Amino acid sequence: MRYIIFLLLTCTIAVAQNPIIDSLRNQLTKLPVDTNRVKTMHELATNLWWNGYDSLARQTLYQAMRMAKQINYSSGEIRARLAQARIEADYLSDTKSAHAQLDTAQQMAIAIHDLSLQGQVLLRRAQLYENIMEKLPEARSLLDKSLQKFQQAHDRQWEAQTYNELAIMKMGEGNYVAAINLWLNARRLQESIHDWKGLRSTLPNLGMVYIKLKRYDEAMACFTEAEKVADRLNDNLVRTFILSRKAEILEKEGKYALALESYMGEVKAYLNPYQPSHLARAYGAVGRIYIQLKQYDKALEYSQLAQSTYRKTVEKTREALEHNAQANFGKIYLALKQYDRVVPYAQAGLEWTKDVKEMRPERTEYVRQLAEAYDHLGQPAKALHYFKWYKAEADTMLNEEAMQKATVASMTYDFEKKQQGVRLKQAQQEARIQLLENDKLEQTRNLLIVLLLLVAGILSFVFWNNRRLRVRNEELSEKNAEIEAALYRGQTLERKRVASELHDSVAAKVSALKWRFEAFDTSQFDADQHREHARLLDHMGEVYEDIRAISHNLMPEILEKQGLQAALIKLTDTLKVQNKTRFLLEVEKSGEDVRGKTAYELYTITLELVNNILKHAKARQADISLARQNGFLMLTVQDDGQGMPAGKNQDGFGTLNIKSRLERLGGTYLVSSPAEGGTCINVQIPIAA
User: Fold this and answer.
1) Is the pLDDT of residue 349 over 50?
2) What single-letter DSSP state applies at residue 213?
3) Its GO CC terms (predicted)?
4) Contact in structure between 682 and 669 (CB atoms under 8 Å)
5) Which one, of 175, 228, 184, lies nearest residue 205 by Cα?
6) Around Cβ 558, how many Cβ atoms within 10 Å?
7) pLDDT tens digits along 53-78
8) What phi and psi values does residue 296 have, to the nearest 5 degrees?
9) What is the pLDDT of residues 7-48, one digit of tens each?
10) pLDDT surpasses 90 at 274
11) Which of 459, 614, 646, 683 is deepest in the core (most CB within 10 A)?
């Protein structure tokens, strides 16, 4: 029986996707363009974000914004902009864009006199500031203002969410009692209105602060409740967060091997789908465990991964420290007795945390590292200075923690006592329901056993058949890859041959024909004949130039030898000389290693878009950019011309050609009209292509 149940679960997991996401996508196919469709798109984007598909979530929110604007649904557009800013708060890679979204949302919320939406704008902006040291006071002020807005609007859902954010800041200050009190307030509100989405963050955070106070039983109780909510919402983000917190408990209990196994599971979860901000912290935790295991080479490797992943995530214009990695470096070099290397890391961390009350634990660790390092470096005066500083910080933390533990114990007892009354009523209701169900269960038990055996047999056959089909599919995939590679080689050779024929034969013949026309004796021609002769010479020159351009574009030599980036540079240099439209290129070394099929397809798409600009846009300037972002290669072509005419058919031959090429690369594209005018086309393909 155990084997049958295991097989049933295994097969179910193997064939199931995400039922909530699939259900929402199915709903979208049936809904007309109205407010319900916008709400469903927002719900879909939220679930995509929870499951780590941030790029898809952003695309869905952009579509929801455009549709809401189209049907004049202001609150729907505002919520989509707020969701965009919330996703960005996890990455801090484009806060300028996030603040622009919030500025627009704020103006719209004020215009429709919606206090709740105004409060949400303030809260989302505070979330953008929470990880920036100099912006923490402003974040606290914004949260206080947002709380007032929600209380005026009698919006208990968002009032609870604000308590959650305020509690996070209190925990950062080391004020665990205040944090727990705020989270308990949030929990009571959310449970009273059955706000499962709010509880998905409140319960894990409450468990996290219990860990800080070493109250592991209360922490595990919160995580158990949070797992139920995550299962209800099918939320992988919360499941992985809880996995990390359980690993933290194992770490504090000295069970380092088990903790390492859990942290590595967290790393795997954040690698696919790729979530760099969470991944950086997971790498730091793995490095911390390897320090405890005295495997300092691996500790250094994962700490460096944490630092590089974090710095790739945040904006390049703003320096930032990932303290999970920064504190690790000092510990590693202390253990390796490389004391001179400890000082710069600890000093950098101390500079960031100095006078920031939310980072007292981190500051205390950096001061401890400096005291120990200077002691071994033979600088007793500095060592004594930092030791006294460390002692003062540590004693303060210890005293505060002892007082808070006693307060929390009493507070937890009162809360649990109230919860017991609620649970008792729930238990009585469940007992009555259970009595009614027992009779039916007795009658259906035998039938279920038979059906279970039958299902197990069917699933066993399906599992075996799927395995056989998977093997065949893998063989077909390998053969398809070989065929595709051979086809591309053949196409490349044929393009080279055709280009050579056009250049060496057809172009030469047209050139010779032009020379013959130029050699005509025109002395006997009248005025009309002179004009016609000149017109023919111009046409032949245009034909000759077109043939040369076509032969070059079929397979540019520079594209094959130096890659996409060099080909685009040469293309824009040529366009600047030959056309009235000024073309600018920005690549940042994004296309140096893009070659072969991907390079050719993207180059051809660029030619198609450039040709459209030259023919139709009447633009003074066009910008071409190529960049890498979140696992995608992004090509953007934007002009300041007359824009796309309303009602124009976008399924012409050129558009179909672009779609066909992107399908082969597994990419997508989006056409938009910037506020300042013109047309912007964004093309993105996965870097794996």
Assistant:
1) yes
2) T
3) membrane
4) yes
5) 184
6) 17
7) 888 888 999 999 999 999 999 999 99
8) -75, -25
9) 223 333 333 357 888 888 888 888 898 999 999 998 898 888
10) no
11) 683
Distance CA 88, CA 536 (A): 59
Task: Rounding to the nearest 10 degrees, give the CA dihedral for residues 268, 270, 272, 277.
Answer: -140
- What's the gap between Cα 47 and its chain centre? 13
Token couple for 474 = 């893998």
Helices (H), 175-295: 176-192, 196-212, 216-233, 236-252, 256-271, 276-292
* Among the listed residues 516, 520, 88, the one whose alpha carbon sits nearest the alpha carbon of residue 277: 88
Q: Which amino acid is at 200?
A: R
Neighbours of 642 (CB within 10 A): 13
- First vs last Cα of the chain: how many Å apart? 45
Q: Is the pLDDT of residue 483 over 70?
A: no
Residue 685: which H helix or E strand, with range? strand 679-686
- Helix (H) or strand (E) run with residue 582 in it: strand 582-586
- Look at residues 173, 162, 156 and name the one whose alpha carbon lies nearest to residue 209: 173
Do 645 and 625 form a contact (C-beta atoms < 8 A)? no
Q: Return the closest-CA partner of residue 153 out of 131, 123, 178, 132.
A: 123
Q: What is the pLDDT of residue 15?
A: 30
- CB proximity list for 264: less than 8 A, separation 6 or greater: 286
Tokens of 687: 């870097």
The residues near 340 (Cβ < 8 Å, ≥ 6 apart) are 373, 377
Specify whether the CB–CB gap between 145 and 122 falls below 8 A.
yes
The three-class DSSP label of residue 638 is strand
DSSP string, 168-180: HHHHHHT-HHHHH
| Cα–Cα dist 144/158, whole Å | 13
Opening angle at CA 229, ends 203 and 424, nearest 5: 80
Is the pTM above the cut of 0.90? no
SS3 per residue for 26-76: HHHHHCCCCHHHHHHHHHHHHHHHHCCCHHHHHHHHHHHHHHHHHCCCHHH
Residues in the chain: 689
CB contact at 8 A, 670 and 617: no
What are the structure tokens assigned to 279, written together?
Answer: 């991944």
